[in-house]
Amino acid sequence: MNIGESPMSVEQNEALHGADDGDDIVQVRHEGDVAVVTMNYPQRRNSFSMKMRVALTDTFQRLFQEDAATRAIVLTGAGGHFCAGGDLSEMQAVTPPLLELRERIAVGVRLFRLIYTGTKPVVAAVEGTCFGAGLSLAAACDFTIGSSAAKYCCAFTKVGLLPDTGLLWTLPQKVGGGKARELMLKADVIDAATAQRIGLVNQTTAPGEALTAALAQAARFASYPPVTLALLKASLVNAGNSIEDAWRLEVDLNPLTRRTSDHTEAVAAFMEKRKPVFTGT
Strands 34-39 and 26-31, how do they pair? Predict the structure, then answer.
């Protein structure tokens, strides 16, 4: 059972959805220069199990650090749901030692850092349930598109836990400190209209259309100069501490963008009234 899921035995889940083969809990496919990362654990509504945490971390590390052909990433879930939060069945066993628990949490932190500070834009495509750590994953992304049937909940307090996977930072950044405090304390389920109104979601689509819209947005991001986007993401992470930090980053990083081939190409394309071709140099 995971946060936001109705009680159901493993046997019932497997009979309904098929047993997890364990080999493709995270799937990756490419559409041009956009990578689509799918959490593939539908029998548990893509719960944020330890195996899922590790697989997502490995996947994003590879996409950010080794896959030069990928310029933008879409994160979504299989089976009509994004992610229903932590897998509570993993918490029914004897409580692990403190250091082991710290490491389990640290895996989620590493994943958050990869998504939030990584060099490539990440778009979340949300259908169905987006609870607990699922909400954390969506909030870590640069842009979130959800269907009008999606439901969101900061469900941690309902199971006696604190928000994790970066949500203590990202939720106030998305919706403001006061609203974030309310969502965390009350743990209410909110609908898609409310999620967009408060800034948790950037765009709402018809049910079943979130991934299509996310792919279109990711392709748009992928068409921009990669070096500029990487430096912009770094600036957005580091410029929020003070106005002096923002000024320093502007002075330090803008000269780097001016010296890129992509900047030269963008200016030439504008003057020649054609579409620019960016190479990431």
Answer: antiparallel
